């Protein structure tokens, strides 16, 4: 049975539809958003091979003219070069502002296609149809679009809300196990930052979620999206409460950047590790109990996520190098570091002006080189 969650943004409200086999209904859901316009479906070769023909048939069946736009796979596509190539493809199709871009893939495709839609002819509508657990519970909802640079992740981008999000849980059947674990990190993050009861549920049912048991998977996805949409409706452009959704990301993005955005550690794995580090850093500052920090680390490790720096291949990391990446974090202000820290499970808060000496000492204690 499908579930629908609304993102309350006034005249820009949109819905997130959650269910199985929604791909076959995609045309019926997208059709009301179009007049006589066309749809450019952006996907990578993997998603095209697995699901592309099925989606294109569904769109055609609803009388929609759709064009395939296949981009390079992987995080490196989220670059200035990748953005230029995608925009050139859209221009070659001669799309106008009555047409629509459809992001059909994981977080990379959603971020890149959404950013291209935000700047193409000063803005064109787009729809998110995420094909990974991470994208379904996190990046497809909320309107954050971006590319990476050598100086950090997601530093160039725009807020551009989709018109619709279609989260087909059936598409996760073909997702590799490592990608399921990466998506689970964002589910776990939601529980750790604001819902202790949800964390308790995950501690019992997390394995079933990872094994894609339908009822458990549906609950985990729906609860995560509910939490995110509530925060986004309160603070669309991250001036306050929305920053809480970045629990684990300041550590995680720094680790990703220092790893060269390589396969050494994927984004979800970095977030899972970052959450464990955020809890232990909070404990080192006397903000939360050691028991809560251990619980967060165990929750990550039990799901197959890294919970310590020395679990990342190719280390060790340099403490100063990591702090240098953190200084580029979008939450940083006036040269001062801002973190999302915790007073306990479900009690995240925004901590400004973090002392770099304390952070450096913590990182060294965690295994980073001095």
What distinguishing features does this structure have?
Dehydroquinate synthase-like, alpha domain; 370 residues; Rossmann fold; 11 strands; alpha/beta; 2 domains; 18% strand; seven-stranded mixed β-sheet; 45% helix
Cα radius of gyration in angstroms: 20 Å
**What class would the helix/strand composition place it in?**
alpha/beta
Q: Name the poorly predicted regions.
A: none
What number of structural domains do the residues give? 2
CATH topology of the largest domain: Rossmann fold
Number of strands: 11
Task: Just name the CATH architecture of the largest domain.
Answer: 3-Layer(aba) Sandwich
Explain how this protein is built.
There is one protein chain. The protein has 370 residues and is of the alpha/beta class. It has two domains: 3-174, Rossmann fold, CATH 3.40.50; 206-365, Dehydroquinate synthase-like, alpha domain (Up-down Bundle), CATH 1.20.1090.10. The chain is 45% helix and 18% strand. The chain is built from 13 helices and eleven strands. It has helices spanning 26-30, 45-61, 80-92, 107-119, 133-139, 177-194, 196-210, 214-234, 249-258, 267-284, 290-302, 319-326, 356-365, and strands at residues 3-7, 14-19, 39-43, 66-70, 100-105, 125-130, 144-149, 152-159, 164-168, 337-342, 348-354. The strands form three sheets. A seven-stranded mixed β-sheet has the order 1-2-9-6-5-3-4, with helices on both faces. A two-stranded antiparallel sheet has the order 7-8. A hairpin with a 5-residue loop joins strand 10 (337-342) and strand 11 (348-354). Helix 6 runs antiparallel to helix 7. It is globular, with a radius of gyration of 20 Å. The N and C termini lie far apart (54 Å). The model has no long low-confidence stretch (mean pLDDT 95).
